C-alpha cells in the first residue's frame, strides 16, 4: 500500500498518466512486475493487459446502467457477446471476496457515493487489475465508509495486489499506507516508511516548510443574524436532494457548518442560495431583509457564493484571471463597467493586486485559468467572493481536491471573513473540515436539516448522516 503525496501541481497526475499509458515520458524507465517497458508500445490498452487499473476521483460509470452493465465498457479483452448473468455471478463473487458490497441491479445514478466508488473498484478488479491506483478515494465518504474501504484495500494487499493511494488527508495516509512517496514541483523528494513518519513531517516534505497554524480567536462575539433561511423548499435533482422546509440562521462572525453526504440536497441548497434554482416556498433574508431569490438581487444584497464545483460553476476555462475576477460583477459596477462597458485595463490592474494579496501563481492577469493548479484556481475564486466584504458567504466544499497548503490558506480566509463580521455558511462533505472550522454544526439529510448535539464527534455525526441515532 503505497501513498503518493504532493501539492496541487506537484506532478502526481502526470506520473499516474504515464503509468496508465496516457502520457509518453521524455525519458526514464518503467518496470511492471519486474519487466522493463518499451515506451513505444506502452498504451492504455497495454497497461490494462498488464494489470494496471485506476479509480479516478470523479466517477466514470454510466449513470443509467447498473454496475454489471458498466463492465462491458472499456474492457480490453473479453467475450464477443456480453452475458449479464455470467458477469453478475463473477462480480458478486469479487464483491464478497473483498467486502465491496454493491447493489448490482440498481442504476448507478441511484447509488450512494460510496457504492459508486465500490462499483468502480469492482470494475477494475473484474478486468484483472493487480496494481490499483486510487485518486482521492475518500473525498466523498463518511468516516465509516472510509474505514470499510480501508478494510477492503487491506484484503487486496494481503492477496498480493499493489495499491497506489493518492490523498491529501495525511491522517488517512498514516492509517493505511505501508510506504509514502512525496512529490514536490515534479521531483520525488522523499520515500518513507509510513510507520516512521507523521503528518507534520509529511506536510513539511510536501510544502518545503512547516504548515502555518490555523489561527482563530477564542473570544469571538457573534452579532445579529446576517443570513436567514426561512422555510425554504425546492425541487431536487433526485428525491433525496429535494429541499424540505429548511430553517437556518447564521449570525455575523459565526461559521455554521452543514455536514452531509453528497446527493442529500447540497447541490440544491447551493443553487438556491446562488440564485440559479427557484425555490418552491420559503424566503432568504440578508441582514434582516427578504431578498428576491435571483442572482442579481442576492449578490446586490451582499450574499457571496464560493461554488463547490470550481471547474463547472466557479470559474470559466478559457477566460483569463482578470475576466474571471469580474465575472460575477454587474454592469452598474463603476470600477470595471464605466458607462456599462468593461474596462479591461481596470480589470487587469485589479487582478494584479488580487494575485499579489492572495499569492496566486503565476500572477499574470492575462493567463488562461486552465494554466493554474487547482490550489491557485481556488485562490482566485476565493478572492473574487471576498473582495467585496460580503454580508454573508456560502462556501460549498471549498477545499475539495486541494493539497494541505492550499486548504489551509482557504480555511484561514474563511475564518478571517467571519472575524471581520460576515456570516459564513460552510456546506461540506468533509467532516473534519466542518468540525475544525464551524462554531455550530447541523446535518443535511435527504434535503432536511437535522440538529447535531453540541460536542458530537465525527463518528456520531456520521451516524446521523446515515439516518441513524446520534447515540
Break the fold down into its secondary structure elements and pairings:
Layout: E1 2-6, H1 12-19, E2 31-32, E3 35-36, H2 44-49, E4 52-55, H3 67-70, H4 84-98, H5 113-126, E5 131-135, H6 143-158, E6 162-166, H7 170-176, E7 179-184, E8 187-193, H8 199-207, E9 225-234, E10 243-251, E11 255-259, H9 266-274, E12 281-286, E13 289-291, H10 295-300, E14 303-306, H11 310-314, H12 321-325, H13 344-357, H14 374-386, E15 392-396, H15 404-419, E16 423-428, H16 431-437, E17 440-445, E18 448-451, H17 458-465
Parallel strand pairs: 1-6, 1-7, 4-5, 5-6, 11-16, 11-17, 14-15, 15-16
Antiparallel strand pairs: 2-3, 7-8, 9-10, 9-12, 12-13, 17-18
Which stretches are poorly predicted, pLDDT < 50 over at least 5 residues?
Answer: none
Question: Can you identify the CATH superfamily of the largest domain?
Answer: P-loop containing nucleotide triphosphate hydrolases
Strand content of the residues, in percent?
15-25%
- Termini separation (Å)? 34 Å
CATH first level of the largest domain: which class?
Alpha Beta
In CATH terms, what is the fold-level topology of the largest domain?
A: Rossmann fold
Counting helices, strands and paired strands, the structural category is: alpha/beta
The number of E-state strands comes to 18
Helix fraction bin: 25-40%
Order of strands, widest sheet: 4-5-6-1-7-8
Amino acid at each position: 500500500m503505497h501513498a503518493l503525496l504532493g501539492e496541487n501541481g506537484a506532478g502526481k497526475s502526470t506520473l499516474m498518466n504515464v503509468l496508465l499509458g496516457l502520457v509518453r515520458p521524455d525519458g526514464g524507465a518503467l518496470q511492471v512486475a519486474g519487466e522493463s517497458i518499451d515506451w513505444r508500445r506502452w498504451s492504455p490498452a497495454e497497461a490494462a493487459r498488464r494489470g494496471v487499473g485506476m479509480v479516478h476521483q470523479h466517477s466514470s460509470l454510466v449513470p443509467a446502467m447498473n454496475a454489471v452493465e458498466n463492465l462491458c465498457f472499456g474492457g480490453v479483452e473479453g467475450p464477443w457477446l456480453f452475458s449479464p448473468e455470467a458477469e453478475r455471478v463473477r462480480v458478486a463473487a469479487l464483491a464478497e471476496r473483498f467486502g465491496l458490497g454493491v447493489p448490482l441491479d440498481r442504476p448507478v445514478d441511484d447509488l450512494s457515493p460510496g457504492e459508486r466508488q465500490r462499483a468502480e473498484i469492482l470494475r477494475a478488479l473484474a478486468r484483472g487489475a493487480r496494481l490499483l491506483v486510487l485518486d482521492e478515494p475518500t473525498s466523498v465518504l463518511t468516516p465509516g465508509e472510509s474505514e470499510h474501504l480501508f478494510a477492503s484495500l487491506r484484503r487486496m494487499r494481503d492477496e498480493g495486489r499493489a495499491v497506489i493511494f493518492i490523498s491529501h488527508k495525511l491522517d488517512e495516509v498514516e492509517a493505511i499506507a505501508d510506504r509514502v512517496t512525496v512529490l514536490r514541483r515534479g521531483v520525488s523528494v522523499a520515500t518513507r516508511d509510513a510507520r516512521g513518519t507523521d503528518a507534520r513531517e509529511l506536510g513539511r516534505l510536501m510544502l518545503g516548510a512547516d504548515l502555518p497554524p490555523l489561527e482563530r480567536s477564542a473570544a469571538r462575539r457573534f452579532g445579529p443574524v446576517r443570513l436567514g433561511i426561512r422555510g425554504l423548499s425546492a425541487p431536487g435533482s433526485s428525491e433525496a436532494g429535494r429541499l424540505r422546509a429548511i430553517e437556518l440562521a447564521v449570525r455575523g462572525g459565526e461559521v455554521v457548518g452543514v455536514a452531509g453526504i453528497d446527493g442529500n440536497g447540497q447541490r440544491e441548497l447551493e443553487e438556491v442560495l446562488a440564485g440559479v434554482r427557484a425555490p418552491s416556498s420559503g424566503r432568504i433574508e440578508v441582514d434582516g431583509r427578504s431578498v428576491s431569490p435571483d442572482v442579481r438581487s442576492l449578490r446586490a444584497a451582499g450574499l457571496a457564493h464560493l461554488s463547490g464545483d470550481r471547474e463547472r460553476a466557479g470559474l470559466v476555462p478559457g477566460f483569463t484571471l482578470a475576466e474571471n475576477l469580474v465575472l460575477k460583477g454587474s454592469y452598474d459596477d463603476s470600477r470595471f463597467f464605466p458607462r456599462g462597458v468593461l474596462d479591461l485595463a481596470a480589470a487587469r490592474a485589479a487582478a494584479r493586486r488580487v494575485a499579489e494579496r492572495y499569492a496566486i501563481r503565476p500572477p499574470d492577469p492575462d493567463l488562461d485559468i486552465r494554466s493554474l493548479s487547482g490550489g491557485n484556481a481556488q485562490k482566485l475564486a476565493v478572492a473574487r467572493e471576498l473582495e467585496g466584504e460580503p454580508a454573508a458567504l456560502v462556501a460549498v466544499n471549498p477545499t475539495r481536491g486541494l493539497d494541505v497548503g492550499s486548504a489551509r490558506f482557504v480555511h484561514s480566509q474563511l475564518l478571517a471573513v467571519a472575524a471581520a463580521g460576515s456570516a459564513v455558511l460552510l456546506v461540506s462533505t468533509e467532516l473534519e473540515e466542518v468540525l475544525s472550522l464551524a462554531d455550530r454544526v447541523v446535518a443535511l439529510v435527504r434535503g432536511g436539516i437535522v440538529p447535531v448535539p453540541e460536542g458530537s464527534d465525527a463518528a456520531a455525526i456520521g451516524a446521523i448522516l446515515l439516518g441513524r441515532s446520534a447515540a
